């Protein structure tokens, strides 16, 4: 009876998905469901091997004998090691590496590195409620910041994943669809997919992130569905690859050679070597959703998945698309491979691709709402992305500058990104990175496409210079309204202060009408 009362009391909180759900109460509701979640036998783990055991406070990141209204719980002990204060830990997992004390569990590992662990109920529908581990948002400005303040990670992409997986993970007969997560980070999407009933293969090579992920898997009793692999996914196999992990800032920018780490944020870094695998060697099944978030290494993941994509039906691919990462280091081969990856998804593997955007990954209308329409990424756009990289490498991007424009500050030199890119390209809409959704088959029922990407339309003539898109975005999707008048015209925004940029606009209009703006080129 007491358990039923707790359940009824909390359903309203969880249904609303409020970040302020009392952490201990939310976790207790999830704990009650362990026995009914599967037909697997339940074990009770009860030791007092944690250094903080028997102090009257449950330190395992799960509810103890005393309820608390804190918005999150702190974890200082591995599950099952603070038994007197927390009660026995109930689990269906048969592989618990830390119980004999010979191997450090995820919390002990994080404690040894002085990394704080917070545990909070996710702001998701109550029927898939779960607890999620993260760290001090002052140290991690990305996943932990959003979990702390919103109770979820990347709300826009979460809404898409929920729509694609909900009601489809468990097939008739009981077999499960597969979700593959490359670059799982703290495991948000992997746990979401498992709670929806999918089996999950997740790749996370960074031990720090994997520790958070492993804890969340066990505290939600999801080990029977989630296979965590500690390798790097690449186009090469059995190669030792160097990864660099920041200790502060956006932890998720950890990646190959540290190419996407923000050098403006002062932070210690950890360098690790990890063995690589290819998806085409690893995955031997159809996939309902493949998620890729690997900080500019997406092209390599897809290149190593070509045989897999040909042989098996991969209905949806959601990925971070990061042209700014190789550009930052002038890695020309990686730069060329990045749009070529999208070309291959369209031409070789018959996907249609929608542009989620960077801001769009955090925007959602709600669990039951229709997904927002996305602009389509087409071959009419990507041919300009491919051509711009060739021009950039040759040193002829946006060259030559018309003579009458050379006297204006923003036109003194050729090139410049994003201003010097062709406005019909996908890259013209992107600051540094963005997010895309590729789909085919039944996935297209949910992918609503409306218009095409580009600051200008691929059908616009050579003579057109100034943007007239509905968002009033200039190059790089920089809002014209907020730009300094001195840079408005170069960003294809109309001049708003004639005394500052009026003459520049007049000169640009004349050169455009005469087809002398080099980045205005049109391909057949």
UniProtKB/TrEMBL annotation:
Keywords tagged on the record: Signal
The Methyltransferase FkbM domain, residue ranges: 181-332
InterPro entries (UniProt xref): FkbM_mtfrase (IPR006342), SAM-dependent_MTase (IPR052514), SAM-dependent_MTases_sf (IPR029063)
Tree of life domain: Eukaryota
Stretch forming the signal peptide: 1-26
Cross-referenced SUPFAM superfamilies: S-adenosyl-L-methionine-dependent methyltransferases
Protein name according to UniProt: Methyltransferase FkbM domain-containing protein
Source organism per UniProt: Volvox africanus
């Amino acid at each position: 009876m007491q358990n039923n009362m707790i359940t009824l009391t909390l359903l309203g909180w969880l249904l609303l998905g409020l970040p302020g759900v009392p952490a201990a109460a939310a976790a207790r509701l999830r704990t009650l469901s362990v026995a009914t979640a599967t037909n697997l036998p339940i074990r009770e783990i009860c030791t007092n091997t944690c250094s903080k055991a028997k102090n009257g406070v449950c330190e395992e990141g799960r509810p103890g004998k005393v309820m608390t209204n804190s918005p999150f719980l702190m974890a200082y002990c591995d599950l099952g090691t603070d038994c007197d204060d927390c009660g026995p830990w109930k689990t269906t997992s048969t592989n618990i590496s830390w119980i004999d004390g010979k191997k450090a569990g995820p919390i002990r590992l994080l404690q040894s590195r002085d990394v704080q662990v917070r545990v909070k109920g996710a702001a998701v529908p109550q029927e898939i409620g779960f607890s999620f581990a993260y760290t001090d948002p002052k140290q991690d400005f990305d996943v932990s910041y959003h979990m702390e303040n919103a109770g979820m990670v990347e709300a826009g992409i979460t809404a898409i994943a929920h729509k694609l997986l909900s009601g489809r993970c468990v097939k008739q007969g009981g077999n499960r669809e597969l979700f593959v997560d490359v670059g799982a980070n703290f495991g948000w999407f992997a746990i979401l997919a498992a709670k929806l009933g999918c089996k999950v293969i997740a790749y996370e090579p960074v031990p720090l992130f994997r520790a958070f992920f492993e804890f969340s898997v066990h505290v939600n009793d999801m080990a029977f569905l989630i296979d965590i692999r500690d390798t790097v996914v690449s186009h090469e196999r059995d190669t030792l690859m160097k990864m660099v992990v920041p200790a502060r800032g956006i932890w998720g920018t950890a990646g190959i050679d540290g190419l996407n780490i923000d050098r403006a944020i002062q932070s210690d870094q950890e360098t690790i070597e990890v063995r690589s695998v290819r998806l085409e060697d690893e995955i031997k099944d159809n996939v309902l959703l493949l998620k890729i978030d690997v900080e500019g290494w997406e092209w390599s993941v897809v290149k190593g998945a070509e045989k897999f994509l040909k042989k098996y039906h991969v209905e949806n691919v959601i990925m971070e698309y990061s042209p700014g990462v190789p550009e930052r280091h002038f890695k020309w081969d990686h730069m060329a491979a990045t749009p070529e990856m999208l070309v291959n998804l369209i031409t070789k593997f018959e996907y249609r691709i929608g542009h989620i955007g960077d801001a769009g990954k955090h925007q959602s209308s709600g669990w039951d709402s229709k997904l927002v329409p996305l602009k389509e990424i087409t071959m009419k756009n990507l041919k300009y992305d491919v051509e711009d990289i060739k021009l950039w490498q040759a040193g002829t991007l946006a060259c030559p500058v018309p003579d009458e424009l050379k006297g204006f500050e923003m036109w003194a030199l050729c090139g410049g990104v994003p201003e010097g890119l062709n406005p019909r390209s996908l890259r013209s809409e992107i600051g540094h990175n963005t997010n895309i959704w590729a789909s085919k088959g039944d996935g297209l029922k949910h992918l609503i496409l409306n218009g095409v990407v580009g600051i200008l339309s691929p059908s616009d003539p050579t003579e057109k210079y100034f943007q007239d898109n509905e968002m009033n975005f200039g190059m790089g999707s920089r809002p014209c309204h907020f730009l300094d008048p001195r840079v408005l015209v170069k960003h294809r925004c109309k001049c708003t202060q004639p005394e500052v940029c009026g003459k520049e606009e007049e000169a640009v209009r004349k050169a455009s009408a005469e087809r002398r703006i080099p980045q205005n080129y049109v391909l057949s």
